Amino acid sequence: MPSTRDIRRRIKSVKNTAQITKAMQMVASAKMRKAQQAALSGRPYATLMNEVLAAATAGAGEFQHPLTEKRDVKKRALILISTDKGLCGALNTNLLREAVKASGANTVYVVAGRKAAQWVARLKRELVAEFTYKDAPQFAEARAISKFAQELFLSGQVDAVDVVFTNYINTLTQKAEVRPLLPMGRLQKLEADLRGQGTTEDLQSGSTREYGFEPGAPQLLGNLLPHYLNYQVYQVLLEAKASEHSARMVAMKSATDNAKQLIKDLTLEYNKLRQANITKELLEITSAAMAMGN
Asked: What is the pLDDT of residues 208-255, one digit of tens each?
């Protein structure tokens, strides 16, 4: 049975841990608000771009582009968007589980985030490139990843490119998803309500709006498709960062709450043990007094 000194030491240790997790929760909360706002602000632009490109595709006739060329998939590239640090619950575990489902024998990996790079190295998979991105992702970082993926596809080194990332839904919910990037098929849009609840659905070839294109739709598509891919990757980075900070805030809040509960339990145990020791000492004193009185 632990002594009162051991329990006091453990209470002090848990209090120190609670202070650390509380501080990390506050930092993650501040970053989370900015990351969530950035992710939600980018969705309307992505949706409008998809709508415009869908309308241009409908008016382009038999449009052909190297980025839309469909081939038999003999080799696939998988872009993994993970975090650099841990302490964010099961975020990376769920992400890598989806990566395992999407990967095959002839899969090469492009990673953004230290956790994904460590996972690829640990499993001894083929890593062709590793990128980094900041807490506030920059468009140039997304463009570098997208350009590398396009070069892999256009050079014939891979026949398809998918991206695995964590999609932000709300503060408590983040979902690991696999999204096809290349070859470009039917354009898709992401609809989001005020709570950030997102669903992906195919855009119809027609649109409720009418667009006039100058220059013609085929030339416009040829110029916009690379930019469209760049922005898709950029939006993925924003979603991943919003998911990371949300998951870390929730995980640190849970750790802080658990530490506080543990402190209460240890304090109760300490008080019980202390009371038992006092009662024992009183019994000893009483017994000694009675013995002397006899």
From this structure: 566 666 666 677 777 788 888 999 999 999 999 999 999 999 999 999
What's the token pair of residue 46?
């992505």
* Cβ density class 44-62: b for 16+ within 10 Å, e for less: eebbebbbbbbbbbbbbee
235 catalytically annotated: no
pTM of the shown model: 0.81
Q: Which of 81, 88, 96, 111 is catalytic?
A: 88
Query: Which amino acid would we find at residue 269?
Result: E
C-alpha–C-alpha distance, residues 254 and 270, integer Å: 24
Pair type for strands 160-170 and 76-81? parallel
Task: Kindly list the structural domains of the chain, giving each domain's residue range(s) and its CATH number in brackets, ordered by start.
Answer: 26-248 (3.40.1380.10)
The tokens describing 34, both together, are: 């900015």
What pLDDT digit, counting tens, does each position of 178-198 carry?
988 888 764 443 333 323 334
> How crowded is residue 91: how many other Cβ atoms within 10 Å of its Cβ?
24
